[in-house]
Amino acid sequence: MRLLHTSDWHLGRSFHRVNMLDAQAGFLAHLVETVRAREVDAVLVSGDVYDRAVPPLAAVELFDEALHRLAEAGVPTVMISGNHDSARRLGVGAGLIGRAGIHLRTDPAACGTPVVLADAHGDVALYGLPYLEPALVRERFGVEKAGHEPVLAAAMDRVRADLAARPEGTRSVVLAHAFVTGGEASDSERDITVGGVASVPAGVFDGVDYVALGHLHGSQTLTDRVRYSGSPLPYSFSEANHRKSMWLVDLGADGKVTAERVDCPVPRPLARIRGRLEDLLTDPGLARHQEAWVEATLTDPVRPAEPMARLTARFPHALALVFDPERAPEEHGVSYARRLAGRSDRQVAEDFVAHVRGAAPDAHERRVLQEAFDAVRADATVREVTP
């Protein structure tokens, strides 16, 4: 059986100030074309379909269009809710939609109830484990302490119990949305830490043939049978080195897994550049990034004037500025109190400006600071004498 594993669409999310709906629509068209061209038997979507619990109307319309196109392709789809989704909203109409071959798995109580498909070698049971918020499902699963590992372990116990009751040779697939130990995170995933612990060991999923993971945005292979597809589009500059793709998984008659990465369309490459502004504007080696979405880290000791306007003159798609000025090593071993000893409030404020900007305030700025302190003192005096 041939499976196409994807996740983390985050429909409705933007990339900095760039609306990503067109790029998301392009990805979904690519997904349907891949389903047809590569003769896929089932599509697996491992959560975070939307970017937030109440998505914008345009994202809902795009999702609706995607459901119709998948249904028209005649290929079953199994889809779970992620930590960004509202499970209840995503699951509305699941029974009716299931008749069209789109199987929404958003209810934790149904973890042990699979979608059963068949090929020439027999049945394949596909179990959808939606994102399980430990505090919300702990009692339902009979878990004493809220935590990702015990909750997922309890869900997997239900999966293994159901699988054990099925005919010998039934192959199995689990969709889950979780942070599994060994996975590499990026800046664009929402923290799911509970009690200081975010990850679960891959061994939680022992006993099934393939685990289609969602949550982490980089495509990753934890074991031959446990993989993240990653997000099809970038949602932070920490993903600049990601290769955005889906997994095309062939599940053999004996449950053996072979997998191939299918690249996703790239709306625009990402680039992270670093240096002094004048160097970034003149370095010929950076010409290859002029059409990329750019994050620039400026190392100028003094913050330059109008840096973004000057940067976009060369990099018209620059989206983010980070300031990391080159500084002389600070004096170590001197306490904060000693550094402030004998300095007035105004001098402390001037030191702060110099530290942040890399240059001391000029005469006009010092005058503004002094006037501000004078006004605060005058107001405090009035308060003291007013009955």
UniProtKB/TrEMBL annotation:
The keyword Hydrolase applies. Keywords: DNA recombination, DNA replication, Endonuclease, Exonuclease, Hydrolase, Nuclease. GO terms for biological process: DNA recombination; DNA replication. GO terms for molecular function: 3'-5' exonuclease activity; endonuclease activity. SUPFAM superfamilies: Metallo-dependent phosphatases (SSF56300). Residues 267-355 form the Nuclease SbcCD subunit D C-terminal domain. The keyword Oxidoreductase does not apply. Residues 1-218 form the Calcineurin-like phosphoesterase domain. Heterodimer of SbcC and SbcD. Belongs to the SbcD family. SbcCD cleaves DNA hairpin structures. These structures can inhibit DNA replication and are intermediates in certain DNA recombination reactions. The complex acts as a 3'->5' double strand exonuclease that can open hairpins. It also has a 5' single-strand endonuclease activity. This is Nuclease SbcCD subunit D. It comes from Streptomyces griseoaurantiacus M045.
